[in-house]
Amino acid sequence: MMNWFQGLGRSSLLLFERTGRAALFQIRIFMGLPSLIRHPGLLVHELYSIGVLSLAIIVISGLTVGMVLGLQMYNTLIDFGSEDSLGPVVALSLVRELGPVLTALLFSGRAGSAVTAEIGLMKATDQLSVMEMMAVDPIKRVVAPRYLAGIISLPLLAAMFSAVGILGSYMVGVGLLGVDDGAFWSQMQDKVSFEGDIVNGVVKSCAFGMVASWIAVFEGYDAVPTTEGVSRATTRTVVHTAFAVLGLDFILTAIMFGDN
Amino acid sequence: MQTNRAVEILVGMFVAAGIAAFFMLAMKVSNISTFTEKDTYKLKARFDNIGGLKTRSPVRIGGVRIGRVASIEYDDKQLEAVVTISIINGHNRIPDDSTASIFTAGVLGEQYVSLEPGSSDEFFKDGGVIGETQSALVLERMIGKFMMGVGSSNNNKTNNSKKTP
Predict the structure, then answer these.
(1) What does the pLDDT average to over A213-227?
(2) Which positions in chain B touch A79 (Cβ < 8 Å)?
(3) Nearest CB partner across the interface for B18, out of A159, A188, A201
(4) What is the dihedral of CA B73, B75, B80, B84, to 10 degrees?
(5) Among partner residues B11, B30, B65, which is closest to A197 by beta-carbon distance?
(6) Which of A48, A82, A190 sits opposite B31 (nearest CB)?
């Protein structure tokens, strides 16, 4: 019994310790960000491996999600004779929720895990210590570019996801199922507001970008420097990002859309 | 770290594609291109009951959308709802004896303000007040009236049937 309490205390202390380390790490990253102005090449390289290489999965997922949404919503809406409102339904659900959330989840699986594994392996193979020995700050050199690249990439990817998803549902709805072309777009423009929906979606994806890249770089930097430790850190990145993004999404949705 | 030119070009294309997607969302999907609040003029209409009308609900003439509901307030003195609608400047030839009604699009659809053009030669100007209005039809009230009607006619029938034998 005593052991059980001891274990509980130890694990909660460890949890607080990790949370504190993560918060301090965030501050250190912020301090390291200005140095990127002098080395934009680092950022461009990370934008390539984090953003450009995630393009394929984001575009294909967006297209299929949009097509499936178009198909399912059509089958539901046709019962009410309101299949013309397929456009707004698909656009709102993509722009407000599915675009930012699914992009963040896919992003953490595609890019976040890679970042964690990369930084974790750098730590396991003592590359980070070597950098410190050569008076190169690994936060500035390794962590900050990846962090900023994630924050820049995610909103762009989310916008592409939503846009491609809407095109996908257009293809299925208008091309295949015979929804009226004009009604699809005009009803969409009628219902989707720029400030209310598009901007809030972008704000959401920026917030998710911060959280996803923060978790990814922290888990890598904080990993136990062994093969097993790196693999566990990679798993944790994906799991924790999923929890954080979904929880944050609920809070942001309640703040943004709760009052109407 | 060596960044070669191909990487830079790809990153540039990636950022451009993201911004293009954002612009497509803004221009093609949202209302920013169809309606800006600037080039409009405002009219007021007083209703006893606005039903489920909301701000940003459409304003239509003959089914064509010409504006939106800008704000809805309640007048404590006259005990009426005051609906301010903003109409696109291009549609500035609305006769000033037009009537405003609140209708529902379809059975489950949204509610909108419908303007019926009158025959006057004078047109509404900014800040004008629509004199004749027709309130929203509240479904419960209609069903209540209908039930009353059915109930009383049934009573008459039973009374009649009692009398005849």
Answers:
(1) 91
(2) none
(3) A159
(4) -40
(5) B30
(6) A190
Residue with tokens 């799991």: A239
- The pLDDT of A22-33, averaged and rounded, is 90
Residues of chain A contacting B7 with CB distance shorter than 8 Å: 44-45, 48
Which residue, A115, A103, A94, A96, is CA-closest to A60? A103
pLDDT for B164 equals 45
Amino acid at A32: G
Minimum mean pLDDT among A11-20, B15-24, B100-109: which range?
B100-109
Sheet strands (E) in chain B: 40-47, 58-61, 64-75, 80-88, 99-104, 111-116, 128-130, 132-134
- What is the average pLDDT across B91-109? 81
Can you give the pTM of this predicted structure? 0.76
For residue B42, report the phi and psi dihedrals to the nearest 5 degrees: -110, 140
CB contact under 8 A, B30 and A48: no
pLDDT of residue B111: 83
